[in-house]
Specification:
Length: about 200
């Protein structure tokens, strides 16, 4: 575990938390002991089952690198995103779509390991994963909407299997929040987190 003062790669932390639950044979909601999903498959990386929201800017950026990614993805580039667009001023370009679900999970979920294929592919090339990985995926379990930062629906409805005792959603996403929104916002959020922690211990 790390605290907010020494953030780690959020993807690694999230995978570590999910893995603990998924390897528990007594846990039937997900993982090795889990019941099959709607496609009859025991699903790992449960938080990656439904695809992810992407701005049209992110979609186009990913498609511009399709030549690099297509050999790694289990579907042709024409099937990577749903066709419907939703107007959303919170997203660059003002519109969002979603990554497609293929074989019961996000089309960009790695099938040869754990986590996001885009994230892994860029790290393997020595590139910053922020160049292509969708912001919603990178920030998870923090998200945004109506001009505000929010906890993801999965935290609110308690369907996120790795939620529970451990780092806060803010601590998990702190480094990514600083990348996208800057040190000034993170300093403000750090102060707020410290006040909350002090109130809980008093």
């Amino acid at each position: 575990m790390t605290d907010a003062a020494s953030p780690r790669d959020p993807l690694e932390a999230l995978i570590e938390g999910v893995t603990i639950v998924e390897l528990d044979p007594e846990e039937t909601s997900v993982g090795r002991g889990g019941l099959p999903n709607a496609d009859g498959v025991v699903q790992l990386d449960a938080c990656c089952m439904h695809g992810v929201d992407v701005s049209i800017v992110e979609r186009d950026r990913i498609l511009a690198r399709a030549g690099d990614l297509e050999p790694l993805v289990r579907a042709p580039r024409e099937q990577w995103f749903v066709t419907a667009l939703e107007e959303d001023p919170d997203f660059p370009g003002g519109f969002a779509t979603r990554t497609a679900v293929v074989d019961g999970a996000c089309v960009f979920l790695r099938r040869d390991g754990r986590g996001c294929l885009i994230h892994a592919a860029l790290l393997a090339r020595g590139e910053d994963y922020h160049a292509l990985k969708p912001m919603v995926s990178t920030l998870f379990p923090v998200t945004f909407g109506d001009g505000a930062l929010l906890c993801s629906d999965e935290l609110h409805d308690e369907s996120l299997v790795c939620a529970g005792n451990g780092p806060t959603a803010y601590a998990m996403a702190r480094a990514e929040l600083q990348f996208y929104f800057g040190a000034e916002l993170v300093a403000e959020l750090d102060a707020h987190a410290s006040r909350l922690a002090a109130a809980q211990t008093s």
